[in-house]
Amino acid sequence: MEGSKIMKIYEIPEQENMRPGHLACPGCGAALAMRYVLKALGDKTIISLPACCWSVIDGPFPYSSLRVPLFHCAFETAASTAAGVRAGLDVKGKEEVHVLAWAGDGGTFDIGIQALSGAAERNENIIYVCYDNEAYMNTGIQRSSATPFGAWTTTTPVKHYKNRPKKDIVAIMAAHRIPYVATTTVGFPNDLIRKMIKAKDIKGTKFIHIYAPCPTGWKCKPDDTIKISKLVVETAVFPLYEIEDGEKYTLNFMPKIKKPVSEYLKMQGRFRHLTEKEIEIIQKDVDFYWKKLLEKCNK
Amino acid sequence: MCKGMSKICNNNGGGEMRKVITGNHAVSYGALLSRVEVIAAYPITPQTQIVELLSEFCAEGILRAKFVKVESEHSAMATCIGASAVGARAFTATSAQGLALMHELLHWAAGGRFPIVLANVNRAMAPGWSIWTDQNDSLSQRDTGWMQIYCESNQEVLDSVIQGYRIAEKVYIPLMLILDAFVLSHTSEIVDIPSQEEVDRYLPPFKPKFKLDPDDPHAFGGLLGPDHYMEIRYLLQKDMERALEVAKKADREFYEIFGRSYGIIEPYKCENAEIIMVTSGTITSTARTVIDKLREKGKKVGLLKIRMFRPFPSIDVKNVLLKAKKVLVIDRNISYGIGGIFFQEIKSVLYNEDKHLPIFGFIAGLGGRDVTPQILEEMIEYVEVHNKPEEPILWRGVKL
Amino acid sequence: MPISLSDTLYNKTGSWRTFRPVHRNKLPPCNKACPTGENIQEYIYLVLEKKYEEAYKEIKKDNPIPSITGRVCPHPCEVKCNRGKFDEPIAIHHIERFLGDFGLELKDEWNIKEKRERIAIIGSGPAGLACAYHLRKKGYKVKIFEAENQIGGMLRIGIPDYRLPKNILDKEIRKLEEMGIEMETGVRINYPPDLLKEYDSIFVATGAHISRKMGVTGEDLNGVISGLEFLKNLNLGGKVKIGKKVAVIGGGNTAIDAARCAMRLGAEVKILYRRSRNEMPAIESEVEEAEKEGVKIEFLTAPVRIIGENHRVSRLECIRMELGEPDESGRRRPIPIKGSEFILSFDTIISAIGEKVDLHPFKNIETTSWGVKIDEFGRTSQEKIFAGGDCVTGPSTVVKALEAGKRAAITIDCFLRGKPLPDFKKEESVSFENINLDYFEKERRIEPLKIDLQRRKKTFEEVWNSYKVETLIKEAKRCFSCGVCNKCDNCWVFCPDISIIRNKEYSVNYDYCKGCGICARECPRYVITMEEER
How far is A248 from chain C (nearest CA, A)? Predict the structure, then answer.
């Protein structure tokens, strides 16, 4: 039974296209992300799902937790498999079925970037969602090019923490001049749903970057997920914005007071080793790119 | 733009057409007539003309297909798999490096039971860039679960595309049809191009048992534990075995409509042959002339062409070879560390028989080196004078 | 190709848990702070749903006279309101007044199942009215005996019109009469146990009406009047003569009310209080109002003697005080500063330094030094006789009297029906730290408007207006709804395992809940707590 219309804080569609019993860790941001995305897209959706946490979360053969057809594909082929599904559907006249490529950060930023770039350059009519938990979580928390500067992972232990910044996948995708690129996160369900609904009505390649906290890999508490995903936006570490046609930038959330990054970092064990100086470096970096973004958004 | 295309446009299913075309274009016509629905391919010499002609067909509206101009062969196969998964007839073509890049997904296509047809132009593997003919590229993929057909002529190439879909869609196993680089791909031969109406009679539309469908949602290819994996693979092998009969039947039915038949193997003048030469690809057509010449001289020699390499036609091969006294196998390939691949397969097929046949394994023509009639005659001579091979690998034509 | 055959519902991931979330409504601090236990959170929620009649009925479960408390209560609920620690407390007082007034216009429907027992109530102040009301609801035959000529006790005598218009009081009393409560005025009961011949139980609620004497010379001069007497004459008769320069001695609500009335009658008024502002027992907003209206207050000042001329008050000798150690009330003791005497001119002195209980009717009933002695259930030392209100505690608030009346009614009912006595203890309430502030933005408290200051100074018109509906709703929206689920859906929205069940009450699907705790964390109001899995 729907909640109270007056008291509701978030307005999300009622239909569930996902069932419980899936194998996500308690507090998984990626599970929530899928739940919201499928609410927005509806059940006339086919998912191309490469190797990532979700290829295990969905459940082992012969079970599946999703109420939509789902194709497990090779790690680097999320976008190219999706392109094939789209071509097959179009040739059969089923243009109203949505094709969703659902990949993690590894399968998007690293091994999958070629296929993604190819599909984007051809402006394939697919929705590509990268749910970003900032490392190769499924295989045991190894670093990816989406891992932020300063983070611990199993392949960037504390003495050799990740010393390169997070790859700016949004800029890369915008450079392809696809019709729609957007960032969003699970702590802002209204924003996420709105962007998915907007994306599904656009023809061409749509790239949505969802920030999905991982308590297991980030060494935070399972109930921190929503709080962290709000903080990451309020500290401008992961701003919420949209880019249309590679040019038009729109900022979706302006924090009333921009909180210091230390508030965000101290919630996560993977940053526990950082010194004051290192946190300052991170803060400077965040401020620099935030200013640039504001300029692009004409704020 | 090839001449005579207007004839196809205007011919709404009437009569055949005879043209002089290259092997590559024969593939294109085969794909066109098979009404492929999704093409995803990446250019690589010597395959480029296949996709060029197909993209013209699509642009002119002659072929109603989606041509996805992917950014690598790996993506090409992924796209074909995605398309096939929703029930579209998918096609791709590649060669050497491209096929190797697809390797991971060749496993996927076969394990996923997607009846995709891939035209591979046999080309030597780098390093040392070589664009000339060599069988290592396709044979490196022999364990992936794909069916493989080796063609000898451009006509066979065109016909095998059509037969290929018929067989693949019956057993749900993808099929690789192979033609030699340059010798077939870029060489023009006379080819009878069948009419669309005839092909439509032979090849019905693709209606798969399982497909991705929002009205009946399932997850395809999820986590498969030790309790289930083996059965899925067992079923693939069983269908491979079934494919031999299916291929034979498809070939017979092809003959009924088109008047041409190839078999899965072709014995040539093997009746009462004491020495049988086993070949594949274009070496076969050279060998035919050599066998004719030696037969005129009174030698009891015969030729066995292996057309379908996967599944391997063990029983048919045995039935032909066991009648001879000696067998020689010519490989335009090598599995490093053991020797020619056709040679290994034929030895293993004949091993448990009561009759012991000496089998000679020759390797020739790697990297496109010409395999001349002289080389073939010398091979026969060698076999005549030796009771068994002196070496496990008999190299011919090496200049060291 | 391995193709899935069914869903993951077979996999009861609930077995992964070590802690489980539990939806359980908890006590909001406002509900706890209200002496008579009003379900404040609930009626605010009903207001938001625009169900004003239901909201009114909710108040009436615990409080018979919301139009009155909504005007005169010192609102301890607002003091404890968690929103007050965030920005400003919810204006519960004004919301209650709106609903009380709304309900005044309605006809109350009572489905009373008559019982045969009869209960006598002595005193028609808030304690007596409340006890009568709660007993009448249960079906008992109730009669109130009031010594004065009009019903209401302190409500009528002690509270001026600008705080509580008489027509409102009369309307509330009429509603009680319509319930079937008998009321007789002009009857003074000198010995309560006499009534036991006709009645099965008696509730004594005679209040505290005897003004304390200042104990200074000149107290008997013309022009010296007690605050209570002054207010009583004003409220019952209407015509009172006072001078032009009025001193009011005292710091309680009576003193403030007297001062503000005197001002409205045209006098220049000064309040003298022996302690400082912090120790004043009067309602803070009333003190501020008085000052706005032009009443002056001199703190740390006490009267020494009243100097008269022609048997009339003309001057007052005062002395400055300083604060020493706390006395038995917990407040710092005022100590006169030697040699700091000074003279002020007044023609009227109103003494409002507190009231005492008239203990004469209570022969054979145990009393304390300040009033009737009762136990936690309202029972006196005499069987079948109960007591409550100011006659027990000394001067206190209306709402505490309501609580005493309600408690006694419950006890009397248990006694008459042979039921065991209930536990009147209240559980822990939700604290401010339990609220998840991520879901709230700071907003100003919206109060209704007051009438123009100039009108206030000249008339006895009611100072506060009522809410308009739009502002009422806006203010009600600020309520955190501490500890009580208001169906905001947050738990359902944020569950990664789709394990929140939304029926009339929300609960958890324990077959699949993995115990991540996100629902508990993101519940803005502490409805969900994590408990150890046993």
Answer: 31
